[in-house]
Amino acid sequence: GQQLNQSPQSMFIQEGEDVSMNCTSSSIFNTWLWYKQDPGEGPVLLIALYKAGELTSNGRLTAQFGITRKDSFLNISASIPSDVGIYFCAGQLRETGNQFYFGTGTSLTVIP
Amino acid sequence: EPEVTQTPSHQVTQMGQEVILRCVPISNHLYFYWYRQILGQKVEFLVSFYNNEISEKSEIFDDQFSVERPDGSNFTLKIRSTKLEDSAMYFCASRVSGQGADYEQYFGPGTRLTVT
């Protein structure tokens, strides 16, 4: 299957700091989705991206669809304790219709 | 707000037994998915389902797995003879259609399957 690598693998930050994480692949993707997962729960959709170069915001979250179509970035500004969780990117390949591949995840810990 | 629901929340079964995991996708959605997540690992695609048939499946989805939409609301995943390595969280997801913003997949809360 496709490998989507997320970095960093984990982050420990102070409340109020900004966060940046990314997701990269060797393949070209049509669609990028960013999800947040709390322990024992299903992933919750945060942001969806459909065009190369697209920059989309959802409150304090901003995500970008990389120009090469092989990567995506997520930024969280002014982090708060409830931002704690695992953030996953998911991509849909240009060649296939339905399958989304998930990244390896970035675990975020916010220290009050 | 409509949401995907899954039952049971936790299923414990003995190795070799059959299990059926149930999902009720969002009512106007047309594409349905099953994913699994082994503890501490990433979410892995199992199968997608559209128009009453499987449209894609991964190498994980072997002959032991099957999916069905027995009526207009439920979407089930059956594992015929469970193995220890089937222990994982199983997520159902659905989306409206295949264009633009409708690619957004919404996940259920998951069923934790424990095979002993």
Number of DSSP E strands of chain B: 11
Q: Which two chains form the greatest contact, residue counts included?
A: A-B, 25 and 28 residues
The number of strands of chain A is: 11
Which value, in Å, is the CA radius of gyration of chain A? 13 Å
Straight-line N-to-C gap of chain B: 37 Å
The assembly state of the depicted protein chains is heterodimer
Unreliable sequence segments of chain B: none
Fraction in helix of chain A: under 10%
Order of helices and strands of chain B: EEEEEEEEEEE
Molecular shape of chain B: globular
Main beta-sheet annotation of chain B = 7 strands, mixed
Report how far apart the termini of chain A are.
Answer: 39 Å
> What kind of sheet is the major sheet of chain A?
6 strands, mixed
Indicate the proportion of strand residues of chain A.
over 45%
β-strand percent of chain B reads over 45%
Compressed to H and E, one letter per element, the order of chain A equals EEEEEEEEEEE
Helix segment tally of chain B: 0
Given helix and strand content, the structural type of chain A is mainly beta
Characterize the overall form of chain A. Answer: globular
Low-pLDDT parts of chain A are none
Describe what this molecule looks like in 3D:
With 112 residues, chain A is mostly beta strands. Helices cover 0% and strands 55% of the residues of chain A. In chain A, a hairpin with a 2-residue loop joins strand 6 (55-58) and strand 7 (61-65). Chain A starts with a strand and ends with a strand. The mean pLDDT of chain A is 91. In chain A, the strands form two sheets. In chain A, strands 2, 4, 5, 9, 10 and 11 form a six-stranded mixed beta sheet that branches. In chain A, strands 1-3-8-7-6 form a five-stranded antiparallel beta sheet, with no helix packed on it. Chain B has strands at 5-7, 10-13, 19-24, 31-37, 44-50, 53-57, 65-68, 75-79, 88-95, 106-107, 111-115. In chain B, strand 4 and strand 5 (44-50) form a beta hairpin. Chain B is an all-beta fold and 116 residues long. Chain B contains no helices and eleven strands. Chain A binds chain B through residues 1, 31, 33, 35, 40-45, 48, 50, 88, 90, 92, 96-105, and chain B through 4, 31, 33, 35, 42-45, 48, 50, 55-56, 58-59, 91, 93, 98, 100-101, 103-110, 112.
